[in-house]
Each structure stands twice: as C-alpha cells, then as structure tokens.
Amino acid sequence: MLCAKYGDAETQGACDARTHENDVLSIAEEIDAIEEKIRRAVVDGMRLSDARRQRGYHQLQSKPK
C-alpha cells in the first residue's frame, strides 16, 4: 500500500480509515449474500424462521469469537 510506505501520520490515518471501510464493506457483502439465500429459501417454500435459523441469521452482525 502506497500510504503505508510513504505516508505521514495524517496519511496513515486516512489509510487506516480506508482499511476499516473495506472491512465494513466486506462484512456487509457477506451479510447480503446470506440474506439473499434466506430470501430464496422462503420463496422456495421454507418458513422464514427456519431459513434464518439454518443460516445463522441472528448471529450475522455479531463479532466472531
């Protein structure tokens, strides 16, 4: 990463923020993919509560242990 090699404290802060943004985006995309699977399961006839339970819906936004 360019800013890690050449950055001053201000630039490094911007790089840290960008890394955080990328992490948040990655997590959001994972959640979206699981929610899409839940939607498809419901359309195919599965009960919403079963689809959510099967895919760990209530743990999606929890930090991994």
Total domain units:
1
How far is the first residue's CA from the last residue's CA?
29 Å
Silhouette: elongated
Query: Could you list the spans in which at least 5 consecutive residues all have pLDDT below 50?
Result: none
Give the helix level as a range of percent.
over 70%
Round the Cα radius of gyration to an integer and report it: 18 Å
Count of discrete alpha- or pi-helical segments spanning 4 or more residues: 3
What does this protein look like?
- It is a single chain.
- It is elongated, with a radius of gyration of 18 Å.
- The longest helix has 35 residues, at 9-43.
- The model has no long low-confidence stretch (mean pLDDT 83).
- It has helices spanning 2-6, 9-43, 48-54.
- It contains three helices and no strands.
- Helices cover 72% and strands 0% of the residues.
- With 65 residues, it is mainly alpha-helical.
- The chain has one domain (2-59).
What is the secondary structure topology, with strand pairs?
Layout: H1 2-6, H2 9-43, H3 48-54
Entry keywords:
65 residues, mainly alpha, 3 helices, 0% strand, elongated
In short:
This protein is mainly alpha-helical. It has one domain (2-59).
